[in-house]
Amino acid sequence: GAGVSQTPSNKVTEKGKYVELRCDPISGHTALYWYRQSLGQGPEFLIYFQGTGAADDSGLPNDRFFAVRPEGSVSTLKIQRTERGDSAVYLCASAGGPNTEAFFGQGTRLTVV
Amino acid sequence: SQQGEEDPQALSIQEGENATMNCSYKTSINNLQWYRQNSGRGLVHLILIRSNEREKHSGRLRVTLDTSKKSSSLLITASRAADTASYFCATDKGGFQKLVFGTGTRLLVSP
Question: Distance (Å) from the C-alpha of residue B14 to the closest C-alpha of chain A?
């Protein structure tokens, strides 16, 4: 597609539920990043994929968070047993090559009630 | 953790004035990118400057990079109300390594 697409744009879920957030990167981009942004803060790195593999998952806060990219294109961020503190905007970005620009989607605003 | 810090945290100017934002970072980098964010949603890529570059221009934007001081600046000339947004720098140690963002500068341009 023309840009990075994230769905849903908004998600409200109850505490303890499971959620999946989807990211469609720019076609042909091999690098894909997930970030989390809380109000008034900069984006906080979660995980990045090079192709199908997670090259760096050091930002995932705990084992309730998991992400996959099985075919090296679409990625899904999965959050189990959601907590109110997980409420944030989750941003996805993709990049086409070394030392190139990373382009972001519009994000998914997750609200855990 | 945040790699960079933007300075100032907030900046308020009048239309037509220039706005300068600074970014400091901690480790050596391969490139530095500046982004704009409106209303806390998607980030718009503004400019990428590589570690072997000292200055780069794009329209009304001018970015400088001083690797000896581990700092960068973003200058917006002849600002417009539409430039009101948060501005972030992000650094990349090389290749596909993670982008690490600063804390952002909130710019308000008043008509």
Answer: 23
